[in-house]
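[job 4471] stage=fold_predict status=RUNNING
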Amino acid sequence: MKKAFDVSDKLFELYHRVHRLLNESMTEEGVSLARSKFLFYLCKLGPCRSTDIADALKFAPRTVTEAIDGLERDRLVVRQPDPDDRRAKIVSITEMGRQALEAAEGPRKQMIGELFATLDDRELDQLHEIVGKLVIKAEDMRAKRKDEISSAAE
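[job 4471] inference complete, writing structure tokens
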């Protein structure tokens, strides 16, 4: 079991180091890693409500609203009335937001390329398979946990 904890600790350490390095590199280009996630999903989803973004990113609606407030203040997104629901707003990425996202993409690709160049193709394939298995198991565990909580609540 100690070995599993050691590997887990290394994975968390890697995640945090890469996250920090990515964030620093992308922020130097004008958009942080967190902000780029919002902009990326707006590009992918197209104009949408903030609740759609919250669902896509699995964030609390309040977190998304605060992030959109900042992005709008910096003119990276714009809110417009929803033609189908006058109480709601549709969020769209602006041209300035697209440019900021594009500028941050270069350092992200460069940093990831440099990091993973440490591994040969066989190692990359193995890592992909191993991490994939862990992701599936974690999702299964989460679903089981949610089922158990639901059953206990009934």
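[job 4471] summary: The chain has a mean pLDDT of 91.
[job 4471] exit 0
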